[in-house]
Specification:
Blueprint (H helix, E strand, L loop, with lengths): L3 E7 L2 H16 L3 E7 L2 H4 L5 H4 L7 H8 L5 E5 L11 E6 L7 E4 L14 E3 L3 H13 L6 E3 L5 H9 L5 E5 H6 L6 E4 L14 E6 L3 H7 L5 H16 L8 E8 L2 E9 L7 E9 L3 H17 L4
Bound molecules: ligand PBG.
Length: 306
């Protein structure tokens, strides 16, 4: 049955692209879809790293209020920014086909980390990227390179790079590609070089748990392979008490019916070594995928991650 739907969305260029993408797909399926743009606390606070001001929830709370009040029926999220546990009454109703999950190196001067001059500054605020970069730079004997905070939406981050505040920055390839900025990518880190964040590159759609009709409308947009992979990744974060204040990477790939999941953890204040773990097995359901995530989390914990 065709529905009249409103998508609550943040107003960054990336969030709007993502909301419009879902709007288009639902329109093709016969629904009438409007957008409701809103500013979240996470968009307003730009001077502190997210882990210090309350983490991922900052980007979704206002959107959830709009769902609760019936001003909107869907919220489209970068799954990476969605807390592991949704509040009572909300559900993740759809995970869509994943974009490139990897991290990208963006730099006007340096084709790769190897080109960085002595004492160069690299920008990122993600604890995960920080510990993975420190690990790689330490292996390259490049402890002179400094990693400094970089916040703001994609355009802001690129502007800060272009103003010369950083020699290079690390961003999700997915966001750059979605906004047609793929030509700014100098190098895409392989998942061996830099293990992605749980959910990176995947879009998730949140609804009110009591809206079975909306869930049904979203069913054609679901990509089950992507959902299995991100369910396993998010289970690693969840089992580790995850928030974005955790220097944790988790990435899964599906081959046939077998999911291969890798996790990595680093101590932001400690040695540049990483704790790594992986698991592999057949998955038919989200619960199977989550059990694999649980195993990797336990192995990371046994290896010293906390
Ligand atoms: N934390 C911000 C954020 N959330 C999702 C993306 C990229 C798109 C995605 O992962 O789907 C980004 C930007 C970035 O990390 O460079």
């Amino acid at each position: 049955m065709p529905l009249m739907l409103t998508i609550a969305t943040r107003e960054s260029r990336l969030a709007l692209w993502q909301a419009e993408h879902v709007q288009q797909l639902l329109t093709v399926h016969g629904h009438r879809v409007d957008l409701l743009g809103m500013t979240t606390r996470g968009d307003q606070i730009l001077d502190r790293t997210l882990s210090k001001v309350g983490g991922k929830g900052l980007f979704v709370k206002e959107l959830e209020t709009a769902l609760a009040e019936g001003r909107a029926q869907l919220a489209v999220h970068s799954l990476k920014d969605v807390p592991m546990e949704l509040p009572e009454g909300f559900a993740l109703a759809c995970v869509m086909a994943r974009e490139d999950p990897r991290d990208a190196w963006v730099s006007p001067q340096c084709a790769s980390l190897a080109d960085l001059s002595a004492g160069a500054v690299v920008g990122t605020s993600s604890l995960r990227r920080t510990v993975l970069l420190r690990h790689t730079l330490s292996e390259m004997k490049r402890d002179d390179v400094r990693i400094e905070p970089l916040r703001g939406n994609l355009d802001t981050r690129l502007r800060k790079l272009d103003e010369g505040q950083y020699a290079g920055i690390v961003l999700a390839a997915a966001g750059l590609k979605r906004l047609g900025l793929g030509q700014r990518i100098r190098h895409i880190f392989s998942t061996d070089e830099m293990l992605p964040a749980a959910g990176q590159g995947a879009l998730g759609i949140e609804i009110r748990a009591d809206r079975a009709d909306v869930a049904e409308a979203l069913a054609p947009l679901v990509d089950q392979a992507s959902w299995l992979a991100v369910a396993a990744e998010r289970a690693v974060s969840r089992a580790m008490g995850g928030s974005c204040s955790m220097p944790l990477a988790a990435h899964a790939t599906l081959q046939g019916d077998r999911l291969h999941l890798r996790g990595a953890w680093g101590d932001p204040e400690g040695a540049p070594q990483l704790v790594r773990a992986e698991a592999e097995g057949p998955v038919a359901t989200l619960a199977d995928a989550e059990a694999l995530g649980q195993r990797v989390a336990e192995a990371l914990g046994a290896g010293g991650a906390h």
